[in-house]
């Protein structure tokens, strides 16, 4: 029997992400997970003042756009005031790992029961395509590394999930969006993050390898291939921490 897939009711309207952008896929997965777990009415989203901001307009859920890089801190405040809410962050790698590195680490260190969903697209997207110190690959060209990222100048990108794994948290995993199999696996990761929050098991981070065709100056198809052939070699798709709430 054929499975009929319908647009989640949480998705209220189309918004302005660029063609081929991964943020829209992430938003769809979030909506599906919230509805399947009966959490839609309890959900509060925290987005960055960057590409993820469109989710505020797209989803029928309460939400707030925090100052650039401060999403984890804003989500922490909301969770403290509304402990029964399903509070999640939808932000980029620049927000979460560079400008907001301190806020992200302290939310993890305190094991705040929120779910962080971080789009790793290897670049600062909304501000014009600058190099992201955390995730831009060596040799990748951006508007602030026109000859390609130079290790001698900017150092290496780093795997944030290795750092987060040193904290006593509930869950940390990395998914990808370059084919249906990986999209389905990423959905399972996001759902687990929401389940662990619902069950008061602690902090979860799900990083998602996501394309940015506009700033990468690639077609959507070639951008997906880049994730598979290049980015995943530096940022492996796997589960880093799964404490299952046994704390």
UniProtKB/TrEMBL annotation:
Residues 60-208 form the Thiamine pyrophosphate enzyme TPP-binding domain. SUPFAM superfamilies: Thiamin diphosphate-binding fold (THDP-binding). Signal peptide: none annotated. One of its GO terms (biological process) is cellular respiration. Keywords: Oxidoreductase. One of its GO terms (molecular function) is thiamine pyrophosphate binding. This is Thiamine pyrophosphate enzyme, C-terminal TPP binding domain protein.
């Amino acid at each position: 029997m054929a499975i009929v897939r319908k647009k989640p009711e949480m998705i209220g309207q189309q918004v302005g992400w660029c063609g081929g952008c991964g943020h829209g896929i992430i938003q769809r997965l979030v909506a599906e997970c919230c509805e399947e777990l009966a959490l839609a009415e309890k959900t509060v989203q925290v987005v960055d003042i960057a590409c993820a901001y469109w989710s505020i307009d797209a989803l029928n859920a309460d939400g707030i756009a925090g100052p650039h890089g401060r999403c984890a801190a804003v989500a922490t405040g909301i969770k403290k005031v509304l402990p029964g809410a399903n509070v999640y962050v939808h932000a980029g790698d620049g927000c979460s790992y560079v400008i907001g590195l301190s806020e992200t680490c302290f939310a993890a260190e305190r094991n705040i029961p929120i779910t962080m969903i971080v789009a790793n697209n290897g670049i600062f997207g909304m501000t014009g395509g600058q190099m992201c110190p955390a995730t831009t690959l060596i040799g990748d060209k951006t508007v602030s590394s026109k000859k390609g990222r130079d290790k001698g100048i900017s150092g290496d990108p780093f795997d944030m999930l290795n750092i987060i794994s040193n904290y006593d948290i509930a869950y940390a995993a990395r998914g990808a969006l370059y084919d249906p199999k990986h999209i389905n696996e990423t959905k399972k990761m996001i759902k687990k993050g929401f389940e662990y929050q619902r069950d008061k098991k602690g902090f979860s981070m799900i990083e998602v390898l996501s394309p940015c065709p506009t700033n990468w100056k690639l077609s959507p198809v070639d951008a997906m291939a880049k994730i598979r052939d290049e980015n995943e070699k530096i940022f492996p798709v796997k589960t880093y921490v799964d404490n299952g709430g046994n704390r």
